[in-house]
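User: Run a structure prediction on this.
Assistant: Running it now.
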Amino acid sequence: MPQATMRSLGALAERRAPHTATLARRLVEALGGRLSTELGIDVDRSDDDVERWALAATLFGNRITAQTAVRTYAVLARAGVHSLTDAGTRSWEELVALLDEGGYVRYDFRTATRLHELAGVLAARHGGRFSSFAGLSDPVQLERALDDLPGWGPVTVRIFLRELRGRWPGARPCLERGVRLAAEHLGLAAPDAPDDQLRATLRRAASDAGIDARDLEAALLRLSRAHGRDFERCPGGAACPLA
Protein backbone atom coordinates (compact mmCIF):
# COMPACT_ATOMS: atom_id res chain seq x y z
CA MET A 1 0.00 0.00 0.00
CA PRO A 2 1.44 3.47 -0.91
CA GLN A 3 2.76 5.46 2.03
CA ALA A 4 0.45 8.40 1.21
CA THR A 5 -2.58 6.11 1.42
CA MET A 6 -1.34 4.64 4.70
CA ARG A 7 -0.90 8.13 6.13
CA SER A 8 -4.43 9.08 5.05
CA LEU A 9 -5.91 5.99 6.70
CA GLY A 10 -3.93 6.68 9.86
CA ALA A 11 -5.16 10.27 9.96
CA LEU A 12 -8.75 9.09 9.45
CA ALA A 13 -8.41 6.61 12.32
CA GLU A 14 -7.03 9.36 14.58
CA ARG A 15 -9.97 11.65 13.75
CA ARG A 16 -12.48 8.86 14.37
CA ALA A 17 -10.94 7.70 17.68
CA PRO A 18 -12.43 10.47 19.91
CA HIS A 19 -15.85 10.07 18.27
CA THR A 20 -15.73 6.28 18.69
CA ALA A 21 -14.62 6.54 22.31
CA THR A 22 -17.37 9.03 23.11
CA LEU A 23 -19.99 6.84 21.47
CA ALA A 24 -18.77 3.71 23.28
CA ARG A 25 -18.76 5.46 26.65
CA ARG A 26 -22.18 6.98 26.08
CA LEU A 27 -23.61 3.59 25.10
CA VAL A 28 -22.46 1.92 28.33
CA GLU A 29 -23.69 4.85 30.42
CA ALA A 30 -27.10 4.77 28.72
CA LEU A 31 -27.77 1.02 28.56
CA GLY A 32 -25.48 -0.47 31.19
CA GLY A 33 -22.68 -2.98 30.92
CA ARG A 34 -22.11 -6.43 32.34
CA LEU A 35 -24.93 -8.17 34.17
CA SER A 36 -22.52 -9.28 36.88
CA THR A 37 -21.59 -5.68 37.67
CA GLU A 38 -25.27 -4.75 37.83
CA LEU A 39 -25.65 -7.41 40.53
CA GLY A 40 -22.70 -6.09 42.52
CA ILE A 41 -20.52 -9.05 41.49
CA ASP A 42 -16.89 -8.47 40.51
CA VAL A 43 -15.68 -11.66 38.84
CA ASP A 44 -12.14 -10.24 38.65
CA ARG A 45 -11.99 -9.81 42.42
CA SER A 46 -12.25 -13.35 43.76
CA ASP A 47 -13.29 -16.94 43.17
CA ASP A 48 -16.22 -16.36 45.53
CA ASP A 49 -17.56 -13.76 43.10
CA VAL A 50 -17.25 -16.31 40.30
CA GLU A 51 -19.39 -18.67 42.41
CA ARG A 52 -22.00 -15.92 42.77
CA TRP A 53 -21.92 -15.26 39.04
CA ALA A 54 -22.45 -18.98 38.28
CA LEU A 55 -25.64 -18.89 40.36
CA ALA A 56 -26.80 -15.71 38.62
CA ALA A 57 -25.96 -17.08 35.15
CA THR A 58 -28.10 -20.13 35.93
CA LEU A 59 -31.03 -17.79 36.55
CA PHE A 60 -30.38 -15.69 33.44
CA GLY A 61 -30.23 -18.86 31.33
CA ASN A 62 -33.99 -19.37 31.55
CA ARG A 63 -36.49 -17.68 29.24
CA ILE A 64 -37.32 -14.87 31.63
CA THR A 65 -36.71 -11.15 31.63
CA ALA A 66 -33.39 -9.84 32.90
CA GLN A 67 -35.30 -7.84 35.51
CA THR A 68 -36.83 -11.02 36.93
CA ALA A 69 -33.44 -12.73 37.10
CA VAL A 70 -31.89 -9.70 38.82
CA ARG A 71 -34.75 -9.54 41.34
CA THR A 72 -34.61 -13.29 42.02
CA TYR A 73 -30.86 -13.24 42.55
CA ALA A 74 -31.31 -10.42 45.07
CA VAL A 75 -33.97 -12.47 46.93
CA LEU A 76 -31.65 -15.49 47.07
CA ALA A 77 -28.71 -13.37 48.24
CA ARG A 78 -30.76 -11.81 51.05
CA ALA A 79 -31.67 -15.33 52.17
CA GLY A 80 -27.98 -16.28 52.31
CA VAL A 81 -27.91 -18.24 49.05
CA HIS A 82 -24.81 -16.87 47.32
CA SER A 83 -23.74 -19.88 45.26
CA LEU A 84 -25.00 -23.10 43.77
CA THR A 85 -23.44 -24.95 46.71
CA ASP A 86 -25.44 -22.77 49.09
CA ALA A 87 -28.59 -23.63 47.12
CA GLY A 88 -27.88 -27.31 47.75
CA THR A 89 -28.13 -26.76 51.49
CA ARG A 90 -31.71 -25.47 51.26
CA SER A 91 -34.81 -27.61 50.91
CA TRP A 92 -36.57 -27.82 47.58
CA GLU A 93 -39.63 -26.15 49.11
CA GLU A 94 -37.57 -23.27 50.43
CA LEU A 95 -35.97 -22.69 47.04
CA VAL A 96 -39.38 -22.72 45.35
CA ALA A 97 -40.62 -20.09 47.80
CA LEU A 98 -37.58 -17.87 47.18
CA LEU A 99 -37.90 -18.23 43.41
CA ASP A 100 -41.58 -17.34 43.62
CA GLU A 101 -40.74 -14.26 45.67
CA GLY A 102 -38.39 -13.13 42.92
CA GLY A 103 -41.05 -13.58 40.26
CA TYR A 104 -39.75 -16.87 38.88
CA VAL A 105 -43.20 -18.44 39.16
CA ARG A 106 -43.41 -20.19 35.77
CA TYR A 107 -40.06 -21.91 36.27
CA ASP A 108 -39.95 -22.29 40.05
CA PHE A 109 -40.31 -26.09 40.35
CA ARG A 110 -37.97 -26.83 37.47
CA THR A 111 -35.35 -24.33 38.60
CA ALA A 112 -35.40 -25.49 42.23
CA THR A 113 -34.76 -29.03 41.01
CA ARG A 114 -32.00 -27.81 38.70
CA LEU A 115 -30.28 -25.90 41.50
CA HIS A 116 -30.23 -29.04 43.65
CA GLU A 117 -28.91 -31.11 40.75
CA LEU A 118 -26.17 -28.58 40.01
CA ALA A 119 -25.12 -28.50 43.67
CA GLY A 120 -24.94 -32.30 43.67
CA VAL A 121 -22.79 -32.45 40.53
CA LEU A 122 -20.47 -29.74 41.84
CA ALA A 123 -20.01 -31.62 45.12
CA ALA A 124 -19.48 -34.99 43.46
CA ARG A 125 -17.21 -33.99 40.58
CA HIS A 126 -15.76 -30.54 41.23
CA GLY A 127 -15.13 -30.20 44.95
CA GLY A 128 -18.22 -28.04 45.35
CA ARG A 129 -16.56 -25.11 43.57
CA PHE A 130 -17.21 -23.65 40.15
CA SER A 131 -13.67 -22.30 40.16
CA SER A 132 -12.48 -25.85 39.42
CA PHE A 133 -13.35 -25.16 35.77
CA ALA A 134 -10.82 -22.32 35.61
CA GLY A 135 -8.00 -24.76 34.86
CA LEU A 136 -9.54 -25.72 31.50
CA SER A 137 -7.58 -23.45 29.18
CA ASP A 138 -8.94 -24.90 25.95
CA PRO A 139 -12.14 -22.99 25.04
CA VAL A 140 -13.80 -26.00 23.39
CA GLN A 141 -13.06 -28.24 26.37
CA LEU A 142 -14.28 -25.62 28.84
CA GLU A 143 -17.53 -24.96 26.97
CA ARG A 144 -18.16 -28.69 26.63
CA ALA A 145 -17.62 -29.24 30.37
CA LEU A 146 -20.00 -26.40 31.28
CA ASP A 147 -22.58 -27.53 28.75
CA ASP A 148 -22.57 -30.93 30.46
CA LEU A 149 -23.90 -29.43 33.69
CA PRO A 150 -27.57 -30.13 34.52
CA GLY A 151 -29.77 -27.53 32.86
CA TRP A 152 -26.86 -25.63 31.35
CA GLY A 153 -26.92 -25.26 27.58
CA PRO A 154 -25.21 -23.01 25.02
CA VAL A 155 -27.15 -19.92 26.13
CA THR A 156 -26.18 -20.22 29.81
CA VAL A 157 -22.59 -21.09 28.89
CA ARG A 158 -22.30 -17.95 26.72
CA ILE A 159 -23.83 -15.75 29.42
CA PHE A 160 -21.41 -17.12 32.00
CA LEU A 161 -18.22 -17.08 29.93
CA ARG A 162 -18.52 -13.73 28.16
CA GLU A 163 -18.07 -11.96 31.51
CA LEU A 164 -15.10 -14.14 32.48
CA ARG A 165 -13.08 -13.23 29.40
CA GLY A 166 -9.67 -12.17 30.65
CA ARG A 167 -10.30 -13.87 34.02
CA TRP A 168 -10.17 -17.50 32.86
CA PRO A 169 -7.79 -18.40 30.01
CA GLY A 170 -10.38 -20.67 28.38
CA ALA A 171 -13.18 -18.10 28.53
CA ARG A 172 -13.19 -17.08 24.88
CA PRO A 173 -16.76 -17.47 23.64
CA CYS A 174 -17.62 -16.34 20.13
CA LEU A 175 -19.06 -12.87 19.77
CA GLU A 176 -22.82 -13.04 19.57
CA ARG A 177 -24.46 -11.89 16.37
CA GLY A 178 -26.30 -9.13 18.23
CA VAL A 179 -22.97 -7.58 19.26
CA ARG A 180 -21.82 -7.50 15.64
CA LEU A 181 -25.10 -6.05 14.35
CA ALA A 182 -25.10 -3.30 16.98
CA ALA A 183 -21.42 -2.44 16.40
CA GLU A 184 -22.04 -2.11 12.67
CA HIS A 185 -25.21 -0.09 13.33
CA LEU A 186 -23.26 2.47 15.36
CA GLY A 187 -20.34 2.54 12.94
CA LEU A 188 -17.97 1.05 15.50
CA ALA A 189 -17.05 -1.82 13.17
CA ALA A 190 -16.87 -2.45 9.46
CA PRO A 191 -19.52 -4.77 8.01
CA ASP A 192 -18.46 -8.43 7.76
CA ALA A 193 -15.22 -7.85 9.68
CA PRO A 194 -13.69 -11.14 10.93
CA ASP A 195 -14.39 -11.90 14.58
CA ASP A 196 -10.77 -11.31 15.65
CA GLN A 197 -10.73 -7.92 13.92
CA LEU A 198 -14.09 -6.94 15.39
CA ARG A 199 -12.99 -7.94 18.88
CA ALA A 200 -9.76 -5.95 18.51
CA THR A 201 -11.75 -2.93 17.29
CA LEU A 202 -14.07 -3.11 20.31
CA ARG A 203 -11.13 -3.51 22.69
CA ARG A 204 -9.50 -0.42 21.21
CA ALA A 205 -12.72 1.60 21.41
CA ALA A 206 -13.22 0.54 25.03
CA SER A 207 -9.62 1.40 25.90
CA ASP A 208 -9.93 4.84 24.31
CA ALA A 209 -13.17 5.36 26.26
CA GLY A 210 -11.66 4.22 29.55
CA ILE A 211 -14.19 1.39 29.97
CA ASP A 212 -14.00 -2.40 30.14
CA ALA A 213 -14.35 -4.10 26.76
CA ARG A 214 -16.75 -6.59 28.34
CA ASP A 215 -19.02 -3.72 29.35
CA LEU A 216 -19.00 -2.40 25.78
CA GLU A 217 -19.84 -5.85 24.42
CA ALA A 218 -22.70 -6.21 26.92
CA ALA A 219 -24.03 -2.74 26.06
CA LEU A 220 -23.97 -3.58 22.35
CA LEU A 221 -25.95 -6.74 23.04
CA ARG A 222 -28.48 -4.70 25.03
CA LEU A 223 -28.71 -2.25 22.12
CA SER A 224 -29.38 -5.06 19.67
CA ARG A 225 -32.15 -6.46 21.84
CA ALA A 226 -33.66 -3.00 22.36
CA HIS A 227 -33.96 -2.67 18.57
CA GLY A 228 -35.35 -6.17 18.25
CA ARG A 229 -32.42 -6.64 15.85
CA ASP A 230 -34.36 -4.49 13.38
CA PHE A 231 -32.08 -1.51 12.74
CA GLU A 232 -33.56 -0.41 9.42
CA ARG A 233 -35.82 2.29 10.89
CA CYS A 234 -33.06 3.79 13.05
CA PRO A 235 -30.57 6.31 11.63
CA GLY A 236 -27.71 4.59 13.47
CA GLY A 237 -24.36 6.02 14.43
CA ALA A 238 -24.36 8.89 16.90
CA ALA A 239 -27.96 9.64 15.84
CA CYS A 240 -29.25 6.36 17.28
CA PRO A 241 -31.67 7.53 20.01
CA LEU A 242 -30.97 4.48 22.18
CA ALA A 243 -27.26 5.16 22.21
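The chain has two domains: 17-29+175-239, 37-162.
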